[in-house]
Write a structure and sequence with these properties.
Blueprint: E1 11-14, H1 21-51, H2 58-75, H3 78-87, E2 91-93, H4 94-127, H5 132-135, H6 138-163, E3 173-174, H7 181-186, H8 193-228, H9 230-259, H10 267-289, H11 292-311
Helix pairs in contact: 1-2, 1-3, 1-10, 1-11, 2-4, 2-10, 4-6, 4-8, 6-8, 8-9, 9-10
Length: 312
């Protein structure tokens, strides 16, 4: 289409999760409570790991970074959702939408790589305990973290390179509560079949690949523990089942969106709630708050803070 024949879209309108006010009030309360819990849970983990020297180990280093990414991932959409539910002003600028897509794909890919790094950390700790500190050195941990952010950046830039120059001349309504890339592409006033395929293949590939690596690593861990002791196997199953639950909850909606990117029934936007509001709560609960060392460290830190307040 000739550029002279269409007016450029300057903003998009989110249709949200529901048009009914009672449902919106419930979603507002649920989103607010969830976000407050996400903030408190994840930042408690980060602060505890940073300030407690007993937790300066590879496992907790990766956990703290996962909590930070979880908080940022949720922050990229939930505050906007809360604001929209409160004010009913469900709009976002074109630039704001592009930026939200950019941030979401950086953080999403980064979290996937961090989850793989954490699974690798547990594999080395259980299967190669004598070489653990050598393999998971501070340098290796830093390289894993930098690698996660670089992969996230490359993935996000690759996604935006496909869509940033698309022309928008028709509807500006996005049937979601955030700038969902498949629905964003659907609004373009041009043939987007190849674009849809490339975007779906890119995001689908990184999601399926990392999910496969995680499952394989968990199988190796369980197999190694099973060979060592049946008693240890039941303990490992109990721990890893919780980890696998988080992985499925995080990757499930991601893979659903990109395997079935344009569903007739808007199931995907409700599944997105799991990624933005449920998983960021479960991660600190499952990966850290069930951990004895973390609970002891949190108690120790809280006692130190209370003692300082009393002295002052």
């Amino acid at each position: 289409m000739n550029k002279a024949n269409y007016s450029e879209v300057s903003e998009f309108v989110f249709l949200g999760l529901s048009i009914y006010r009672p449902t919106q009030c419930f979603l507002f309360a649920f989103s607010t409570i969830s976000y407050a819990t996400i903030f408190l849970g994840n930042f408690s983990v980060v602060i505890t790991v940073v300030f407690d020297s007993h937790l300066h180990s590879p496992m907790y280093f990766l956990l703290a970074n996962l909590s930070f990414v979880d908080f940022c991932f949720s922050t990229s959409t939930v505050p906007k959702l809360i604001s929209d539910l409160y004010s009913r002003n469900n709009t976002i600028s074109f630039q704001g939408c592009i930026f939200q897509i950019f941030v979401l794909h950086i953080l999403g890919a980064c979290e996937m790589v961090l989850l793989v790094a954490m699974a690798w950390d547990r594999y080395v700790a259980i299967c190669k305990p004598l070489y653990y500190l050598t393999i998971m050195s501070p340098r290796m941990c830093l390289l894993l973290l930098i690698g996660a952010w670089i992969i996230g950046l490359i993935h996000s830039v690759a996604q935006l390179a496909f869509v940033v120059h698309l022309p928008f001349c028709g509807s500006n309504e996005i049937d979601s509560f955030y700038c969902d890339l498949p629905r964003f592409i659907k609004l373009a006033c041009t043939d987007t079949y190849r674009m849809e395929f490339l975007v779906t293949a890119d995001s689908g590939l990184i999601s399926v690949t990392t999910f496969f690596l995680l499952i394989v690593s968990y199988i190796f861990i369980l197999f190694t523990v099973w060979k060592q002791s049946l008693g240890s196997l039941s303990k490992a199953l109990s721990t890893l089942s919780a980890h696998i639950s988080v992985v499925v909850l995080f990757f499930g909606p991601c893979m659903f969106v990109y395997i079935w990117p344009f569903p007739n029934v808007p199931v995907d936007k409700f599944l997105a709630i799991v990624d933005f509001m449920i998983t960021p709560i479960l991660n600190p609960a499952i990966y850290t708050l069930r951990n004895k060392d973390m609970k002891v460290a949190m108690k120790r830190l809280s006692k130190q803070l209370l003692s300082r307040k009393r002295v002052s």
